[in-house]
TrEMBL record:
InterPro entries: AB_hydrolase_1, AB_hydrolase_fold, AB_hydrolase_sf. It comes from Phytohabitans maris. GO terms for molecular function: hydrolase activity. It holds the Pfam family Abhydrolase_1. Keywords: Hydrolase. This is Alpha/beta hydrolase. Signal peptide: none annotated.
Length: 286
């Protein structure tokens, strides 16, 4: 998909950064994961191949929206998504969410049902089994690992940050799209480069998605048609997926496990990106 550009959208406390790919309708909304950015959707956008415009928001506390203040939480992100739809003149659309973005998408559909026609949930949204750990902060560290710990790290240059991500077990292959995604996350001046992601945003959002009432209620009510695309492998490319027991999800909505994918590559590479694009473009995919 051609025509990538970035725009700013006014929101409570500042401007959201939104990435756009393509031209014309329909405009589809994509929501990234807990420490990601809108560039997580670049490969999906390419696979849409002219089937509308993909609008992907940098959630507050991440990417170009990193300076927007809290409080954070899924309801706040859902309201920001409405601001994006308003700015783009989109009354209602398909919403796709990956990882934490799936929880945001569910809350968006629950709180603003007139703005959502259907949902594409990608390895996120339905309740997760709690990870081991005594406190929520310990659980967060187990669940996200290096992705969370990097927020307190400093890197000498871009090459060092790329090597940090290359060492992550989920990134079995490397591509120009992944490199752009990684580079975009950096801010600061060498040799003190760091991730743009707000650690407080990550913390508040993790507590909300794991124990908050808004995502639990949104899943119980499920006010819009939805489909679930499940990664075959887990956050660290381990054999056990993030959703190890999908039967309860499949009893409620169509579910497909995408072979050859882990929690990251399901959105950053094929075959996952192609599956997501097909689900977004297919009005019968629910």
């Amino acid at each position: 998909m051609t025509g990538y550009r970035r725009i700013s959208v006014p929101a409570d406390g500042g401007d959201l950064t939104v990435g756009l790919w393509g031209d014309g309708g329909p405009v589809l909304l994509a929501v990234h994961g807990i420490t990601a950015s809108h560039l997580a959707w670049a490969v999906v956008a390419e696979r849409l191949a002219g089937a509308g415009t993909l609008a992907a928001v940098d959630l507050r506390g991440r990417g170009g929206s990193a300076q927007l203040p809290g409080p954070y939480g899924l309801a706040r992100h859902a309201a920001d998504c409405v601001a994006v739809l308003d700015a783009l003149g989109v009354p209602s659309t398909v919403v796709c969410g990956h990882s934490m973005g799936g929880f945001v998408a569910l809350v968006l559909a629950d709180r603003y049902p007139d703005r959502v026609t259907r949902l594409v949930l990608v390895d996120g949204g339905p309740p997760l089994p709690p990870p081991p750990g005594g406190t929520p902060e310990e659980q967060l560290d187990v669940a996200l690992g290096a992705a969370a710990r990097r927020l307190s790290m400093r890197f000498a240059d871009r090459a060092a940050y790329r090597e940090f991500w290359r060492a992550h077990p989920a990134f079995r292959t490397w591509s120009a799209a992944i490199e752009s995604y990684v580079d975009y996350d950096l801010t600061g001046v060498e040799p003190e480069l760091r991730s743009r992601v707000s650690a407080e945003a990550m913390r508040q959002d993790y507590l909300d998605l794991s124990a908050g009432e808004a995502p639990a209620r949104a899943w119980r009510r499920l006010r819009r048609p939805a489909v679930f695309l499940r990664a075959e492998r887990g956050m660290f490319d381990e054999p056990t997926p993030l959703y190890p027991e999908p039967e309860a999800i499949a009893a409620r909505i169509p579910l497909r496990t995408v072979p050859g994918t882990n929690h990251y590559t399901i959105v950053l590479d094929d075959p996952g990106a192609a599956e997501i694009a097909a689900a977004l473009a297919d009005p019968g995919a629910h």
